[in-house]
Structures are given as C-alpha cells and as structure tokens.
Specification:
about 45% helix, about 400 residues, alpha/beta, single chain, Heat Shock Protein 90, 12 strands, Rossmann fold
Length: about 400
C-alpha cells in the first residue's frame, strides 16, 4: 500500500511539472505573438475608424464596419486571455460602472447562441475599480460557460446588486455582486471542487482554461468568484468585486468625427503600417504627425524639433521595438533631456507591468493596442489638458 501511494504521489508531481512546463510554453508563445498580432489589429481597427469618417457612408456599411470592430476587439480579448493566464500581470484599474461592461460582454458572448439571456442591472449599482479589459474577459468566460452548459437551450439570467456587508470578503466590506444563473445540467459535487483548476473540464471539446483564467483575474482584483450547483438544477456563478466610494467621472468628449485642437505628435513604432495608420488618425483629429522607427530615431527627431523651434507636444512610444531601443529606455533618456515632455506608452502586450504602472516609468498615459480613432482621441485629449511634466 505504501509503495502504491509513493507511485501515485510521483505521478501527481510529474503531472504538475508537465503542466507547469505547458504553462511556461504557453506564456512564451503568447508573449511572442502579442506584439505582432495586436499591431495587425491596430492597422485593421485604425483603418476602420478612418473609413467610418469618410463622407457618404451608408447605414448598411456602418453596420458592417461595427461588426468588424467588434470582431477585432474579440480577437484582442483572445490574446489577452492567453497572456493573463500564462503570465499574469497587474490589472490596470480605473473607476468603472460594471453595468456597461456586463452589457457589452453579454452582447458579444450571446451573439448567435442557441439560448436567450436576461439582464437585471439596477441603475444605482456602486462603482468598482477594475481593469475593464480583464473583467470583460471574466464575464465573457462566465457567459460562454453558461450557455454552453445548456445543450437543450434555455435562458441565462444575469443580475447584479449592491451588497452592504459582503460575506465574501474579510471585514464584510461593501461589494457589487453579479450572479450568472443558467439552466444547464448542473455540476457534480466532485467536479465542483475542481471547477477552477487549470485544464479541468467536463466538456468533450473544452480546454479547461476559461474558468481558471476568470478565477485568476478576479483574485488579482481582490474579488471573489464562487459557484453553487446541483446536478439537474443548473448553476449560479457569483462574481463579487469590492465597491468604491467615488463615482465614475464622465469626461466631456468631443462628438464622434470632431476635430481636436491641433498639436504636433511624434510616433515611435517599428511597423511602417502602424505608423501610417497613426498618421491618418492623427491628421483626421487635427494633429501634425512625424514618425520614428526606433528609440534612437525618436530621440534624434525630438532634439531636432526643439532645435528648429517647432517642438512636439506629445510623443507616443511603442514599448517593444525588436532589435532596437524601445519606449522604456527611450522615455528615460528623453526625460533626462526634457523633463517636461509628454510621453504616452503604447503596447500590444497588455499584461506588461509598464502599462499598469506607466507613471512609474515616466509615461504620462498608456494606450493599449489595438486602438481606434476614439481611443486615440481620448488619451490625447487627457494628455493635452495636463500640464507639461505632470505625471500623477
């Protein structure tokens, strides 16, 4: 009996080692493709934005362009899922109205699904501080899991409520709770204990990563993800997130298509196609554009502009430039020469800690790839309003 237990233990340890190696390989793969893949998505999304602004666009064409944008955002979310689970990353949190993220995620997840869904989202939900992209992934995974568990069709009910004394947290602090209730077959008690384990799945074609990813993200947000289920009675997944006191500030924005006050912007990116789409987006917003392929090129261009009496108002730096100086080193050198420079970091590797903590590295704002015209307009509007040299 003892020998049998030793063999079993060794097999379990070997399986854990193999799973760790698989995760490491997944992390290398995800990190390797994120930069190139999200650059491609930036080109697609940016050009869609430019076409949307073209005169004479018909309603049907606008609808199809919106479908293309939605598909591009879904592709970005897929890359983020690999990165989040394989490598982790600090959430880039902001005060957020949860209802908006829930509505958007439900629209995507249930599009074409053989089930119906119902939303019960009170207007007075407390705000939460979350990484919108990461929590969007959590919701997408929960919604997909719900409708995929209902082979015979049915209805998924998604409801949210404020909780004054949330038992899911130490000290019974305030939280916002979101319940996702399905009418599936339910989960067996033995499976329930492993439902958030990596690679565990009860589906014939499942990877066992969706709920593990969701659980990992929620824990990094200081939240809780729990499940209640009985065979034959469906399941309820509950997401609980700490509530915050502040309200979600709605920043006044220009109407879509509006041109912003002009300025001069330098874009550092190693991809010529990305620089080209940035040129189009910036010029459509009323800015003057200049491009640089490497960090060294950007530093020279910045110095030359200052010497010529026509300095750049903003610099956008790609974080990763293969084989050359990227944004992290370039911003350090640039601020040593001009501490008042306004520099935005842009990256397709959304889990990089520089994006989540960009001010610690000298950047005034962060821009995640892929981005469209409105995302670029929003970040430039915030940066242009900030006093030079202010990074807090």
């Amino acid at each position: 009996m003892l020998a049998f237990r030793n063999v079993t233990t060794r097999r379990e340890l070997e399986n854990q080692r193999l799973r760790s190696q698989q995760l490491e390989s997944l992390g290398v793969l995800a990190g390797g493709i994120a930069h190139d893949f999200n650059n491609l998505l930036t080109i697609i999304m940016g050009n869609i934005s430019l076409v949307e602004e073209a005169p004479g666009i018909r309603a049907e064409e606008t609808r199809r362009l919106e479908q293309m944008k939605t598909a591009t955002e879904s592709a970005r979310a897929l890359t983020d899922q690999f990165l989040t689970f394989a490598r982790g990353g600090d959430p880039d949190t902001v005060p957020t109205a949860l209802a908006a993220i829930v509505t958007q995620a439900a629209t995507l997840a249930f599009s074409g699904a053989p089930v119906s869904y119902e939303l019960d989202l009170p207007a007075d939900l407390w705000p939460v501080r979350v990484d919108r992209a990461q929590i969007g992934q959590v919701l997408n995974n929960l919604f997909l899991n719900a409708w995929q568990s209902m082979e015979g069709g049915g209805r998924v009910v998604i409801s949210a409520r404020n909780c004054e004394n949330c038992s899911d947290f130490p000290g019974d602090e305030r939280c916002v709770r979101l319940d996702v209730r399905d009418q599936g077959a339910g989960i067996a008690p033995d499976d329930l204990e492993r439902i958030f384990d990596p690679y565990f799945t009860t589906k014939e074609t499942g990877t066992g990563l969706g709920l593990a990813i969701a659980h990992s993200i929620v824990r990094r947000h200081g939240g809780a993800l729990i499940v209640q289920s009985q065979p034959g009675s469906g399941s309820v997944f509950t997401l609980a997130l700490p509530a915050i006191e502040s309200t979600v500030a709605e920043r006044p924005v220009a109407a879509p298509g509006a041109v912003m006050p002009g300025g001069r912007v330098l874009v550092l990116d190693d991809e010529a196609e990305v620089r080209d789409v940035c040129r189009g987006l910036l010029e459509s917003l009323g800015f003057r554009y200049a491009g640089a392929e490497t960090g060294e090129d950007a530093l020279r261009a910045y110095a030359a502009a200052v010497a010529a009496g026509d300095p750049f108002d903003v610099v956008i730096m790609d974080l990763t430039v293969p084989g050359a100086m990227g944004g992290k080193e370039a911003v350090r050198r640039l601020l040593a020469e001009d501490p008042r420079a306004r520099v935005i970091v842009a990256s397709g590797y959304s889990r990089d800690p520089v994006l989540a903590n960009h001010r610690q590295y000298g950047f005034i704002a962060a821009l995640r790839k892929p981005f469209d015209r409105e995302a670029l307009r929003a970040v430039l509007g915030a940066v242009m309003d900030a006093a030079p040299g202010v990074r807090d």
